[in-house]
């Protein structure tokens, strides 16, 4: 007997939006989750772009299908607990807000009915339809969907790529991203956990050590405080190496005790996944080294990661560091209290300064982020960072100095529930000024007239210090700039400056 040929069916997920139903191929649908109450909105986004949220360390931009398909003309946030269908598309992902998930429909090719749209030259969003029981279901075309202005797509990170297109993976591996400062010490590369790093300073003078302890190089003075200086290669068990000739020091805190590490070069701050740290062989030459393992960074190469916990148990180093901590109550009566003012110098097709206190973090410009449809207004896109959505702004464009050179660093500023990342050419260095706490004076607060662009309202001219140590700085208050970009009517407040000094009267 001859067997009749069989026709395979296609599987579609059927989604309910109001009184209508749409369908997507199950090949692109990853999962369905509840719509979070708190979404981080994207600045100047269309009404159908609800914002973004974090799902297992992934940024999920959410599109409101009902508003997109003009089935709902409401504005603002969604109050009720609807659902979000997570869709994988073009090596990225996004979420579709829907009212209901009706299930999976198996559709034979002959049951798919093409739809003709004679009044439009563009590819229709719903080029075909089928019936699922008593429901009429429109098939959504994702290519046409992403041809619309204002659409958002979060690029998948390296752990989220599938081995084969069309297959789905649970994506349940949590990515723990840590940061470390990569340094070079006479040809030996070490990575210092960012949590223990306090600052980087020139190593100008070095007094001879008072005792012979392995790795102890002597002492130096930083802002009237004596610091013990060590050769960081001792941490790697390489105490038989020649004394380093570095002229830089990295100040670290171990059990809240400051000490300095002499280095030849500070390369950069980098990120790594602790799960990817390669353990050292138990038979290596220095089993007592304060090293957690090896990091093989794709761009920066190999380095030895310092184990902060084991470092904190090194009694020889900590005892020496504690010898130079000043005793409390040593200040002379009536002495004017000094304050340490810190400023970040950076380039944005020109040299600028901003108070360190106004920055949450400085990161390298990411390769992957969700582009913004309003790049003409400075908003470049959105990225996921440390469990939050960060809105990227090209500071060079706001300063009217745009150029073709890609940004290399991002200055992240907290602004209420928002995080704004200012793209710059590069962060150059941090300047520390020790001056009387009451010596900070604002000479000029920028243009404050109604209608003045936010970038002009955030400029400050300040004076710090007294006498021969007085210094004048032209400052960009990025905290105020971020607030004005999010809400032009927001109040002005600059940490360290507006909170510490009255304006100089005319």
From TrEMBL:
Record Gene3D superfamilies: CheA-289, Domain 4 (2.40.50.180), SH3 Domains (2.30.30.40)
For this record, the Gene Ontology CC terms, alphabetical, are: cytosol
Residue span(s) of domain CheW-like: 9-151, 177-317, 338-487
Domain of life of the source: Bacteria
- GO process annotations (BP): chemotaxis; signal transduction
SMART domains referenced in this protein's UniProt entry, alphabetically: CheW
InterPro entries to which the protein is assigned, alphabetical: CheW, CheW-like_dom_sf, CheW-lke_dom
PANTHER family in the record? CHEMOTAXIS PROTEIN CHEW, CHEMOTAXIS SENSOR HISTIDINE KINASE-RELATED
Q: What is this protein called?
A: Chemotaxis signal transduction protein
Organism, per UniProt?
Kushneria indalinina DSM 14324
